[in-house]
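BUG: 3D viewer hangs when loading the predicted structure for this chain

Environment: internal workstation, default settings.
Expected: structure renders.
Actual: progress bar stalls at 90%.

Input used:
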Amino acid sequence: MKKIILLLAIILIYSANAYSQEGKPFAKIFSNFNYNMSAEELEDGFKEFEIKRSYLGYSYKFNDEFSAKITFDVGSNSAGSAYTAYLKIASLSWNINDKMTLNFGQIGTRNFKFMEKGWGKRYIYKSLQDEQKWASSADAGMTIDYSLTNNLSLDMQILNGEGYEKVQGSDALMRGGAGITYTAGSISIRVSRDMMPRTSYGDNDAMQSINTIAGIYKNGGITIGGEYNMQENSSYVLDDTKTGISAYGDYKLNDDYSIFARYDQISSENSDGCCITNDDGTLTIFGIQRKMTKGVTVAINMQTWQDATLDGAKEAEAENKLYINLEYKF
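Structure tokens produced before the viewer hung:
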């Protein structure tokens, strides 16, 4: 792993020296200290320092029309390694005209980019769809962004659908989606639909789709956002539905400090009107953030998760975790 990081660093340094006028290297690191305050000692309890994510990359502008970007994501993976480098972004962007841009290659997806930007604290916690793995933040494919008016924009995408950690599956079925965003003064609203074709054709198999409506309000030092997501035919099972609601707010006390809070709720329902899955429950986050200097941000926050229970059943015990999160980028 150290050899991989060293190689990436050498590439970035060389690129920066060779193309300092047109290109720019960059890095972003998410780290934290967390402590489970609910668990008893030696019984599912923990306290640890973590490096959750490290992004290393380089962007290059060929001319006013064409630009390219490459990003490596260093983090955990399903194989069990805590630090593995993935090629996350390897994209070419073409500004066709003042209204239209085309992105091709391994690109950032549009599924939750709007919501993630509104939340603005990816280093603390992912946006709802990202955390629930309803979609991947990057994938191989193509996106088109088109400005209909000064206030209204349209985006479309077609993707492999496997995410940036995998290649296209043997079924060769692709993921598609479209969204429209309206901005007027302090308010932005986005409506989108994402579609994943089914891989089998039994009586209970169906195409999965995700419908999202989200809004952000910014005025002075106040930011308020929310989103409602409905996953129809969840995991390609006919009439199985998942619903995800997220609301967040941030109040800027001064140039350095802000306080923030967030509430998420995940619920499931099948064709019979039940049931609860392991993912169902509620999340609350509240804390304070400080910008230490340009590129360095720290936050102290409490994160509480509570599993959902059936009506009439005993309420699940909440799990409380104290976090100190750091983001540093350059």
